[in-house]
Structures are given as C-alpha cells and as structure tokens.
Amino acid sequence: MRAEMRERFLGGRIVWAAFGAAPLPARMVEFMESVLDLPLHDAYGSSEGGGFMIDHRPIRPPVLDYKLLDLPDLGYSRIDLPHPRGELLLRSESVVPGYYNRPDATAEVFDEDGYFHTGDVIAEIAPDELVYVDRVKNVVKLSRGESVAPSRLEGLFSTSEVIQQIFVYGTSDQSYLLAVVVPAQEAVESVGGDPAVLRPRIAWSIWRLAAEADLHAYEIPQAFLLETEPFTPQNGLATDVRKPVRHKLQERYGARLEALYTAMEAFGGDI
C-alpha cells in the first residue's frame, strides 16, 4: 500500500523531502519516511529570511551567526541547565533589510547589531545544534512562575493512539494546565462513543506519555474537555498546514475552560 502511494500518487521520483512550519510528531515522521522510503528532514526558516536550518543545524551560508536572548519574564536563560535557552537571533545573508515604509516594525525585529529576532524559543543542545521549543508569544507563565510551551506538549500528546488533536490551555492566574481533546475516531468507535469509558483512556494516555517524556507535574493537563469536531481550516481553528490557530481556539473554548477551572477549585481548590 505504501509503495503504491509512493509510486502512483507521488510519482515515484522523490529524492529529498522535508517538513516545516511546525514540528511533526515522531509517529508522523516515521509514517512519512516509510511512505517516501527516504529520510524526512526538519527544515526551519521564516518569511523574512527563507531557510535558516536543516535538521537543527544552521545552513552556512546564508547564516552568518546566531545568539540566544534571555527571556527572564518567561523563565528562559543562556545559563539554563542542562542546555542554554532563549529567543533565537540570527544574522543571515538572506534576511530582508527591513519592512517597507515601516521603520517602527523594522526596529522591533532587528537589534542594534543587526541580528534578526525570530520570535522562537530555542534550546542550544550543542554548538550549532539548535532545537525548537516554542514561539515567544505562545509561552504561558503559570501562577507559580513556571514557563510552559503548549505547542511542545501538544506535539507530544498528539502522538497518543487515542488523541487526534489537543489544545493545551493555561493562564498566569492558575498553577496547572487544562486541555481540549479531539479523540481519535478509532478510539471513539472502540468504546461505542461512550465518554465515560473514553475519558479515562485519554487521561491514562496523557499521563503515560508525560511519564515517558519525564515532564514536570505542571506540564500535564489536570482535566480536559472532549470535543467531537476536529480543528480544521474550514472552522478556522487550524491553518492550511494544520497548525493550530491559538487565538481562535482560545475564543472558542476559553469560557468553557475558565468555567472548568472554577468547577475544579470548588472541588478542592488549586491542584
């Protein structure tokens, strides 16, 4: 079947393949590599500068240099252990010189030394080996000061066989996370659509993956809403490349999630 997909639907002449826009779950990478019969490369770049990295390593040229910027309000620093973390700033031959007739916007994205602010939180695993953590604007700081990267957690939990999609939610007023879960169709069918059976299966899967990834307790959603409608470009909850549209998800589910926080506090307070 996969050989047929490769030869018949994809033409059978692919010699190199990559993904971008957002990290892919390991299960999806494994599947695509089995279909393509090729390694799937992790590409990183931006509209302003084109490609910057392949497989977590800067492309030289065009990249000339990079550095990490401390984000103390979000809890990221170049002295973090075991790896330095911070916003990735780049000097590159391919970066645009600025925004047309927008000196204010240009000043916001370039520092005084000409480094471009990518807006991405990066961990430097080794010299010239950089791993994406999250967008600066997507990082949530909880009430006890911990910084959480929701998209990283969503990528992890979406590898569950019982979860099709997940939206992780938190605020600076609370010390723990909640989530919205779209269950996998096979999981729904296997329990006859009974949420009383499906909920504990999803919860167990989340905790199992969290334990395997050695997550902190505050990185694990303590409760979740079940949603039967997937996040799609058609309903505005995902982009054309299936990235979650976070502000739209917050608009759709924010009130219900805040109500869930209130209900949980009524049954024992902060957990």
From TrEMBL:
Superkingdom as given in the UniProt entry: Bacteria
Assigned keywords, A-Z: ATP-binding, Nucleotide-binding
Classification via InterPro entries: ANL_N_sf
GO cellular component entries: membrane
GO MF assignments: ATP binding; long-chain fatty acid-CoA ligase activity
Gene3D superfamilies xrefs: N-terminal domain of ligase-like
Protein name: Long-subunit acyl-CoA synthetase (AMP-forming)
Taxonomy of the source species: Bacteria, Bacillati, Actinomycetota, Actinomycetes, Propionibacteriales
